[in-house]
Amino acid sequence: MGTWNPQLELSYGNGFDNGHRCTNSSVELAPVFTLGLTENIDAVVAYPFVFINEFEDTSSVRISGFSDVGMEIKWRFLEHEKFSLVFKPGISLPSGKSEIGLGNGAVGFSSFLISTMTYSKMAINTNLGYISNHNDCGAARNIWHTSVGFDFASTEIVHLVVNGGIEKNPDINSQTPAAFALIGLYYFLSEDNEIALGYKCGLTEPEADHSFIVGLTLRF
């Protein structure tokens, strides 16, 4: 980001799950603020607002509110020609109402290692992560995550993105990991502003069947 350079990301995600006699949908509005502390270190704060709808036969449940606050540090500790490595530790603070399904109800921690390799118009990003998922809702406490993404600059202002990943299922009663595939694009409105569109498909049962994502990034 650069020293004291701010960035605001606004995203809207709408996910759907269809099961036997039951339909679930969720919407997340996720503002994320990033501030460059040095040339290689950024601070990140996220505070998502969530809408959850569950319909079963003739009954329905609706939940809405802010979830847990997330804070991260992104440290680009290695950069050599077209390759870079970023270490991203994070903490989740129990600001949401976990008793109604908003947040985990406990302080959680995460640690990610992100690599980027650039070839001409193509960038390849890999993520390896661990989430210490402390919670009061009976979910698994140790979550691993891995994903890989491809970013292709089709023109100077349009980039195409393909991403896929897999993560340990937080449901302790299931051994099926959550796996997904995503396709999208982002368009530079100007040098400092961009808009993104994406579709995410759940490849295994724990992931939402279909998710649609819209994002806006503003740099100041």
- Output the structural class: mainly beta
Average pLDDT figure? 93
> For the report, how would you describe the main beta sheet?
12 strands, antiparallel, barrel
Instruction: List the helices and strands in order.
Output: EEEEEEEEEEEEEE
Runs in which pLDDT lies below 50 for 5 or more consecutive residues are: none
Given the structure, what is the number of helices?
Answer: 0
CATH topology: Lipocalin
* Beta-strand residue fraction: over 45%
* CATH architecture grouping: Beta Barrel
Question: Any idea of the CATH class?
Answer: Mainly Beta
Spatial shape: globular
Description:
The protein has a 12-stranded antiparallel β-barrel with strand order 1-2-3-6-7-8-9-10-11-12-13-14. The mean pLDDT is 93. By secondary structure, the protein is mainly β. It has no helices and 14 strands. The protein has a single domain (6-219), classed as Autotransporter beta-domain (Lipocalin, Beta Barrel), CATH 2.40.128.130. A hairpin with a 2-residue loop joins strand 4 (49-56) and strand 5 (59-66).
